[in-house]
Design a protein that fits this description.
The protein is mostly beta strands and about 210 residues long. The protein has 2 domains: about 15-160, Lipocalin (Beta Barrel), CATH 2.40.128.350; about 165-205. It is built from 3 helices and 14 strands. The strands form 2 sheets. The chain has an 8-stranded antiparallel β-barrel. A hairpin with a 4-residue loop joins strand 6 and strand 7. It is elongated. The relative contact order is 0.12.
């Protein structure tokens, strides 16, 4: 019985541990006019079935010359993930999603009233452990609001991560160009070598 309960608890912990907050810049565009970048938080959670839930928290529609309209939490579940090089992609069109009140109880969150029957959206994006990028097209009656969260620079991020990978296999040369080690882990490149200057993965490193 104890083993069964422990297994259930571990499984639940594994599910909930996959939720992560991403904080980045958010831009809203209406009729070709974009707001300045504003900081926002999006929570991404891997569901038990492997799909992704994206939650845009405390979304407020703020356009130049108009009063801000607090909308609320926009919850987008059941996004299929497709593996790419170092990150996953997702996309879904014409999906009706739930809008709930935001965290501040003193604000009149309009979303739950305006979209009691659901908010129609298109969403696409990319996600890794380090960053999230997504675009949402929100249909407000006959108006479409375009929301962009983060930046689509995943290729550069992946290349940077690979360059810093301590398990990457590298060759080690002396400053004179002599091969000292061949195809060793980057984290172990200087182990066993005398003091001096070495070239590791194209960069000069001093062993003291």
């Amino acid at each position: 019985m104890k083993k069964t309960l422990l297994s259930i608890c571990m499984a639940l912990c594994a599910v909930f541990a996959t939720a992560k907050d991403y904080t980045d810049n958010l831009v809203v565009t209406v009729d070709g006019i974009s707001t300045p970048s504003m900081q926002a938080t999006v929570t991404a959670e891997k569901q038990a079935d492997g799909k992704l839930t994206v939650l845009l928290k405390n979304f407020t529609l703020s356009m130049p010359g108009a009063d801000p309209i607090p909308i609320g939490h926009i919850n987008v579940p059941d996004l299929e993930l497709t593996a790419a090089d170092g990150y996953d992609t997702f996309a879904m069109e014409n999906k009706s999603v739930t809008v709930t009140a935001g965290d501040d109880p003193t604000l009149a969150w309009a979303g739950p009233i305006l979209f009691a029957g659901g908010l129609n959206i298109n969403i696409s994006g990319k996600i890794s452990d380090e960053k999230l990028y997504c675009t949402l097209d929100l249909t407000f009656g006959t108006q479409v609001i375009y929301v962009t969260f983060g930046t689509d620079d995943f290729t550069a991020s992946v290349l940077s991560a690979k360059a810093d990978d301590p398990n990457k296999l590298v060759d080690v040369y002396t400053i004179l160009g002599t091969l000292a080690k061949k195809q060793v882990k980057k984290s172990q490149a200087l182990e066993g070598l005398q003091r001096g200057i070495y070239i590791v993965d194209g960069k000069k490193i001093i062993k003291k």
